[in-house]
Write a structure and sequence with these properties.
heterodimer, A: about 120 residues, mainly beta, four-stranded antiparallel beta sheet, B: about 120 residues, globular
């Protein structure tokens, strides 16, 4: 069963507008972490933001914020004031199990290709 | 943040040959490393979990004898694609975790693009 669902294969947004990328997840673990990664055409995976399942506040990192709704099992990424350099693939990911366990693996959603229009 | 390197970044090989890809954690010791494969316009699919000093744990559907993983030290894991075929052409990415208690993040290497002709 798919555990990370990204329902938007592609999105087009005007420069300087805010954009929300959707992500829902499924887990029976109480302890888990949610991540967003950006993958430009070069292929490198760039870490953007992290939300722990026990974190009460939504995570923010500069222009990135994570809208964490635990009861709905959603972890949407919000990018404010989008820039041309934001054009890339974006992956939502989840790591189950205790955060102190280095062996717990990360699984990825199918990704959303974001294109910023000038 | 911690740095993970991969070598080579790009490799072209002939069908039937073997290719070795290295993944190194440069400034931390990685008890566990992960290998992913990514086909064009698709997501990252976990192939195996590599544990230092023990056998790798492969995901369902991944051939152990075809994708040999060796994690001989706390800073190096290797993936060998044996008897490569064109369908093995893909982008291979490794990631590494710091020892337990020191962090939750996985650090990704820059990837290796394999083309089998």
């Amino acid at each position: 069963a798919q555990k990370i669902t990204q329902t938007q294969p592609g999105m087009f947004v005007q420069e300087k507008e805010a954009v929300t990328l959707d992500c829902t997840y499924d887990t029976s673990d109480q302890s888990y972490g949610l991540f967003w990664y950006k993958q430009p055409s070069s292929g490198e995976m760039i870490f953007l933001i992290y939300q722990g399942s026990y974190d009460e506040q939504n995570a923010t990192e500069g222009r990135y914020s994570l809208n964490f709704q635990k009861a709905r099992k959603s972890a949407n990424l919000v990018i404010s004031a989008s820039q041309l350099g934001d054009s890339a693939m974006y992956f939502c990911a989840m790591r189950e199990g205790p955060t102190y366990s280095s062996a717990s693996k990360i699984i990825f959603g199918s990704g959303t290709r974001l294109s910023i229009r000038p | 943040g911690a740095v993970v390197s991969q070598h080579p970044s790009r490799v072209i090989c002939k069908s039937g040959t073997s290719v070795k890809i290295e993944c190194r954690s440069l400034d931390f010791q990685a008890t566990t490393m992960f290998w992913y494969r990514q086909f064009p316009k698709q997501s990252l699919m976990l192939m195996a979990t590599s544990n230092e000093g023990s056998k790798a744990t492969y995901e369902q559907g991944v051939e152990k004898d075809k994708f040999l993983i060796n994690h001989a030290s706390l800073t190096l894991s290797t993936l060998t694609v044996t008897s490569a075929h064109p369908e093995d052409s893909s982008f291979y990415i490794c990631s590494a975790s710091e020892p337990p208690g020191l962090g939750w993040e996985q650090y990704f290497g820059p990837g290796t693009r394999l083309t089998v002709t």
